[in-house]
Amino acid sequence: MTKIIFFILACSTCDLEYQTYPKNKNMSCGQQGNLYMKTNAVWLQEWQAYYTKDGKILIGYRCE
User: Fold this and answer.
1) What is the pTM of this model?
2) Which of helix, strand or coil describes residue 22?
3) What are the φ and ψ backbone dihedral angles of 58, each rounded to 5 degrees?
4) Domain range for residue 50?
5) Which residues are CB-neighbours of 35 under 8 A, at least 6 positions away?
6) Which residues have a Cβ under 8 Å from the Cβ of 37 and sit 6 or more positions away?
7) In this predicted model, what pLDDT tens digit does every residue of 1-49 receive, in sequence order?
8) Which residues make Cβ contacts (< 8 Å) with residue 18, sequence separation at least 6?
């Protein structure tokens, strides 16, 4: 795996946005994904979702 891709939704009628970062070879995909989510998004319990600092929904991530 060489990269990690995050899926972000700006609005209900928008296409998904993708943010790609190099995969850290010293971390698992889950470790790097969780670290990104903890530092770049906030969990809103009332909506049961992670939101970026600019108000977009962080859907998830995958490594390739």
Assistant:
1) 0.78
2) strand
3) -90, 105
4) 3-63
5) 27
6) 50, 58, 61
7) 789 999 999 988 888 999 999 999 999 999 999 999 999 999 999 989 9
8) 5, 6, 7, 8
Mark 13-46 as b/e (b = at least 16 C-beta within 10 Å).
Answer: eeeeeeeeeebeeeeeeeebbeebbeeebeeeee
Indicate the number of domains in the chain. Answer: 1
Structure tokens at 58: 């962080």
How far is CA 20 from each of CA 44, 59, 64, rounded to the nearest angstrom? 24, 14, 10
Neighbours of 4 (CB within 10 A): 20
